[in-house]
Specification:
heterodimer, A: mainly alpha, Serine Threonine Protein Phosphatase 5, Tetratricopeptide repeat, elongated, B: 720 residues, mainly beta, Immunoglobulin-like, 2 domains, 22-stranded antiparallel β-barrel, 5-stranded mixed beta sheet, 5% helix
């Protein structure tokens, strides 16, 4: 009897695990495909919700929470022109999801990159008030992201964007940003994905910025 | 047995494979409007969906039995509910509660003006105080552009809603500041001792304030010092009136800032013609220390210490022996020490503890010698209990010991001395309740006891606020306020009681991203004011009284003009009081019925320059001429001033540098503040008088501030 139960369990557990893994693959694959075409607030919010549900079920995977945070970051960018009063709340949601991912995977270059992105969002929201608080930590956060993975192009891309949008007087401007966009470009070209689900955004935006600067 | 087991297994697997329950429904808010884009899911699984444009949702799940359904949406409180899944479709109607946050919740605002960077919905940003033209980075100067204040050019202090300067009490990190203003010669405006750069938040309450604060009949100025310094930086200041040097060191969890300054007005006074005859122009040395230690993620320990010495001497009209003049000599030594600790204790509690010591000594010679020495030690503790977003309770207590010693030696070497000692204790409790986002109340009570007055008092305070639209709200405040009489009168007559005022105010405000508008009407009643027969303050009694009624308007617009920002303040005041040596009820000398300020700031990105203009107007004030029969029948001239400042941001030797220029009374309008009279008539029975005028037509200031090791960032145009 005991033996039977044992056999039954040993048979059933891997089955469940595999089923769970397949479910994860399927759900993530589907959401990431949708993410490529998601442009409006409704579909981005839906994606944030989808990733959020995966994240609360998969407490050892950092990617679902990462993408939940990234979806909120994209919603923030949309809100900047469409609904500025919601910006603060969206950045807060992005931060909450990112904190969850960081608990699972500390010292992760991609997560620190996203952290830098959220800080930049705070500066854009209210440069007068948040500039002093966030400007210094954007630089140091992105620098840590570069240190953790020197091959990651995204911290360079964000660094370049941040410098590009900083007035020339304060040490910003297109000329100062150009070499960093170029550095990011070369890293994007050689970047190897750890898995199909790993972050891969930024290359197009980087190329657009380069085209714009070079005229 | 075996067969039963396998059968259950089969059944279980079948159930697992086939049981499908549909969960659907609609999400609405309290007003019945659909909630779009909410997430609905079963905890621990992937099963779930988002609500559509009509708030509808529907999904299928293969889970069975009791599960927890989690519903969350931005701006709403998350909700979880237990449902049992057994193949039958589930239909749900769910209402979500909106989250209360700073932006959409009602806040109690009657009477209070806040300057802060943490919150968006504030009337002023911290650095507005430093960049307001005409204020020359003086806290009182900047707050004087807000409604509810009366400009009193010859004093430079805060006069709020018909209250005298002493009726406004200043608090730093919750602790009372005994001598907030620098010591000055009569008719030369005083400045606040503290630089606005020390503070991250300022609340200027023109009435109806919290039970946490007392000993102020009119207003409370609450200053909160900066937390940990941002970065390691060395600063050099070269000014037309002196030099300064500072160094800030930042470590991981702590920071230390040291600064020192030397002021000497002599070179400036030699260049700019003065109405006064200086013998020894103002000269001073000061040093400050600020230490911060972050005790934990949420706790911070602060120490602030400042010491200052100043001296001046000038040829001053001797009112009692006119037209003679004599040398007036003033020396001041001041020390302020202040330490505090804040920490969150557990989930619902937070603690504040603070202690301060101050020592102020003024020595004045003008034929006579006057030596005033005041020492104060105090401590304060508050506990904050907030079990839910809708309820908070604050309780606390403070103790203050004051020692005031004075010796007066007349020209013919006759000495009078007085000593006043007071052990003062206060306790308070205050509850904040909000019923929903629309209605909030703050109910508090404060008890004080002074050993010197040998009396206690009990002051109730009440504030209500009600949201009337998305951006608008109405507030109401009522309260009793007590203050011990000034040492100046207590030294003649220690057997005095508390002076009392009662405030009632009604406020309406709209705070939007692009503009702020507020209007406030108030009535303040004064009772038990110190009152005595002319020239006989030893006969003082608490039988004076009075009132102040008025209307304050404020409008600020940050968006309409690109790179421009302006505000307009207007105050109407009607006040009369019978106090001090007034023979009848009359308007006090510092009260003007109409006050107007227009402040404009403009940023020129190409020139990296920040410009500021402030226009101020005060209608004539009444004062008494003892040479006329009718009391208080004279009027000062109306006061007009246009001030200008500019800050140019640049680099000097590769270091971030600001060149700052400011000028008051750019148009050179004649300003005068009436006359002062001798206390005794001369041989002809006439009271001698002198005209009260500013020491110079304009005040010009030029300063060069170099920050070594500082990275310029976008906020620096505000950091001036």
């Amino acid at each position: 009897m005991k033996k039977l139960l044992f056999i039954a369990f040993t048979l059933i557990i891997p089955f469940f695990l595999q089923a769970q893994n397949a479910k994860y693959q399927k759900a993530m694959g589907q959401a990431l495909t949708e993410m490529k075409s998601a442009k409006d607030a409704e579909s981005l919010q839906k994606l944030a919700n989808d990733f959020g549900r995966i994240a609360q079920a998969e407490t050892t995977e950092w990617l679902p929470a990462y993408y939940q945070s990234l979806s909120y970051m994209q919603l923030s960018l949309l809100a900047m022109s469409e609904n500025p009063s919601k910006l603060g709340a969206l950045l807060e949601e992005a931060q909450k999801a990112l904190d969850q991912a960081m608990d699972i995977s500390p010292n992760n270059s991609e997560l620190l990159t996203l952290q830098g992105y959220i800080y930049i969002g705070h500066i854009w929201m209210d440069p007068m008030t948040n500039g002093a608080k966030y400007s210094p930590i954007v630089g140091s956060t992105l620098a840590t992201a570069m240190e953790l993975d020197p091959n990651n192009p995204r911290p360079y891309y964000l660094q370049a964007m941040n410098i590009y949008f900083t007035p020339e007087f304060y040490g910003g401007g297109a000329n100062k940003a150009l070499p960093i966009f170029e550095k990011a470009e070369s890293l994007f070209e050689s970047f190897e994905l750890a898995s199909p689900f790993h972050p891969q955004w930024g290359a197009d935006g980087n190329a657009e910025m380069l085209a714009q600067i070079r005229g | 047995m075996k067969s039963i087991l396998s059968l259950t297994f089969c059944l279980f697997l079948v159930a697992l494979a086939s049981a499908q329950t549909t969960i659907s429904g609609k999400l609405t808010d309290k007003k019945g409007e659909s909630i779009i884009g909410a997430s609905i899911g079963i905890t621990g699984t992937y099963d779930g969906t988002s609500s559509d444009l009509d708030g509808q949702f529907s999904f299928e799940t293969t889970e069975t039995g009791e599960v927890i359904l989690q519903i969350s949406s931005l701006g709403f409180e998350s909700q979880s509910l237990t449902v049992t899944l057994n193949d039958t479709p589930i239909q749900l109607e769910i209402t979500l509660k909106e989250v209360i946050n700073e932006l959409n919740a009602v806040v109690i605002t009657a009477g209070a003006f806040e300057a802060s960077d943490r919150k968006k919905a504030v009337v002023m940003k911290s650095l507005d105080i430093a960049t307001t033209a005409g204020a020359t980075a003086d806290i009182a100067g900047a707050l004087n552009t807000l409604p509810g204040t009366q400009k009193v050019g010859e004093e430079g202090k805060l006069f709020v809603r018909g209250g005298a300067a002493y009726e406004t009490q200043t608090f730093i990190d919750g602790l009372r500041v005994q001598n907030p203003y620098s010591s000055s010669v009569p008719n030369i405006p005083a400045r606040n001792r503290f630089s606005p750069f020390l503070f991250k938040g300022t609340v200027f309450s023109t009435g109806g304030y919290s039970a946490e604060y007392g000993q102020a009949l009119s207003a409370a100025l609450l200053l909160e010092t900066q937390d940990l310094a941002k970065e390691t930086v060395t600063g050099v200041s070269l000014m037309s009136i002196g030099v300064g040097l500072s160094h800030t060191q930042r470590w991981d969890k702590s920071s230390l800032a040291l600064s020192g300054g030397y002021t000497n007005m002599a070179p400036y006074l030699a260049l700019v013609p003065q109405n006064l005859n200086w013998i020894k122009p103002v000269q001073g040395e000061n040093a400050q220390l600020a230490y911060r230690y972050k005790t934990s993620e949420t706790g911070i320990f602060k120490i602030n210490l400042s010491v200052a010495h100043s001296a001046m001497a000038l040829e001053y009209p001797d009112l009692e022996n006119m037209p003679a003049t004599s040398e007036f000599d003033l020396r001041n030594d001041n020390l302020e020490f202040n330490t505090s600790f804040r920490e969150i204790l557990g989930e619902n509690w937070s603690l504040y503890a603070g202690a301060a010591y101050s020592d102020n000594r003024d020595r004045i010679h003008q034929g006579y010698q006057l030596d005033q020495h005041e020492q104060t030690a105090q401590s304060k503790t508050t506990l904050n209990f907030r079990p839910s977003e809708n309820f908070g309770l604050k309780i606390g207590g403070e103790y203050l010991f004051n020692h005031f010693e004075e010796s007066f030696t007349s020209a013919d070497q006759e000495t009078h001395s007085s000593l006043l000692e007071d052990h003062f204790g206060a306790t308070f409790a205050e509850a904040e309740i909000s019923w929903n986002r629309k209605l909030a109340a703050r109910i508090g009570i404060r008890h004080e006891r002074s050993s010197l007055l040998d009396a206690g008092n009990l002051a109730p305070r009440l504030s209500l606020a009600c949201k009337t639209s998305e951006f608008g709200q109405v507030s109401l405040a009522y309260g009793s306020f007590y203050q011990s009489p000034e040492n100046e009168w207590l030294r003649y007559q220690p057997k005095l009681g508390y002076e009392k005022s009662t405030h009632l105010m009604l406020n309406y405000q709209i705070i939007r991203d692009d503009y702020i508008f507020r209007v406030e009407a108030y009535h303040k009643k004064y009772d038990a004011l110190v009152h005595f027969p002319k020239s006989e303050p030893w006969l003082s009694q608490n039988d004076g009284d009075g009132y102040a009624t008025g209307l304050d308007l404020y409008f600020r617009d940050r968006k309409t003009i690109k790179n421009g920002d302006y505000w307009i303040s207007y105050s109407y005041l009607k006040t009369e009081r019978e106090y001090l040596d007034f023979p009848e009820a009359a308007a006090p000398r510092f009260a003007s019925p109409h006050n107007l300020s227009v402040v404009y700031k403009h940023w020129l990105p190409k020139w990296t320059t920040y410009l500021g203009f402030t226009y101020s107007f005060s209608s004539p004030r009444s004062y008494d001429d003892p040479n006329t029969v009718v009391f208080n029948d004279r009027q000062t001239a109306a006061y007009h001033d246009l001030s200008f400042n500019a800050s140019y941001l640049t680099q000097l030797f590769g270091q971030f540098t600001v060149l700052y220029v400011s000028a008051s009374n750019v148009l050179g309008i004649e300003q005068s503040f009436g006359e002062r009279f001798s206390s005794t008539p001369d041989s002809n029975g006439e009271f001698a008088s002198i005209a009260v005028r500013p020491p110079a037509k304009r005040f010009l200031f030029v300063g060069l501030f170099i920050s070594i090791g500082k990275k310029p960032d976008q906020s620096d145009r505000q950091n001036l």
